[in-house]
Amino acid sequence: MKLTALLSIVTVLLSTPASGRLLIYSDDVFLGCLDCVSTAPDSVCNFEGHYGSLKASKSIWNQSGDYGNPESPKSPWSGSTQGPIIMDENSTVFGWFQINPEGGYTQSAKLADLFHSMGGDLKKIRQLFCQD
After folding, report:
1. How far apart are CA 101 and CA 104, in angstroms?
2. Three-state SS string across the chain, please?
3. Is the pLDDT confidence value at 14 over 90?
4. How far is it, in rounded angstroms, from Cα 97 to Cα 88?
5. Measuring CA to CA, which residue among 87, 127, 123, 125 is closest to residue 104?
6. CA dist., res. 104 & res. 71, Å (int)
7. Rounded CA gap, 16 and 113, in Å?
8. Out of 66, 84, 87, 126, which could bridge 24 as a Cys pair, Cβ 3.0 to 4.6 Å?
9. 116, exposed or middle or buried, with CB in 10 Å at 0-12, 13-18, 19+?
10. Mean of the per-residue pLDDT values for the chain?
11. Nearest alpha-carbon partner for 72 in 99, 42, 107
12. Contact indicator for 38, 46 with CB cutoff of 8 Å
């Protein structure tokens, strides 16, 4: 189930008719590129970068930061409807990258299943999400 959910999420992200890269923002703060290769400096899957590190302040994987902490409404893991917004480079909005299905992201339930099945361990979730 975990890998199936992950593959579904990635498939939807990659098959979305976006113009350019899929980017996430919280308010006006850039949080990274969802569908960029892991070597891209702004990829959420670049484990050494500003957006893919477990410790970076603007990382959705940093459980202590505003954007990764499940207690923060700015985090996709909080269950709020204020999680990061997904848009392409032309500012076309595709929903909110979050585990709350009320945010308009079609894969929120699957993302929530993945989050809960991993016990909220963002390191494990990142590992699966960023798997090539």
Report:
1. 6
2. CHHHHHHHHHHHHHHCCCCCCCEEEECCEEEEECCCCCCCCCECCCCCCCCCCCCCCCCCCCCCCCCCCCCCCCCCCCCCCCCCEEECCCCCEEEECCCCHHHCCCCHHHHHHHHHHCCCCHHHHHHHHCCC
3. no
4. 13
5. 87
6. 20
7. 21
8. 84
9. exposed
10. 86
11. 99
12. yes
Backbone Cα Rg of the chain: 13
Asked if residue 17 lies in contact with residue 122, where contact means CB atoms within 8 angstroms, the answer is no
CA–CA dist 105, 85 (Å, integer): 9
Q: What is the distance between the alpha carbons of residues 45 and 32, in angstroms, rounded to a whole number?
A: 9
- Per-residue tokens: 8: 């579904």
Could you tell me which of 12, 42, 1, 6 has the C-alpha nearest to residue 105? Answer: 12
Spatial neighbors of 119 by CB under 8 A, at least 6 apart, are none
pLDDT-above-90 percentage for the chain: 67
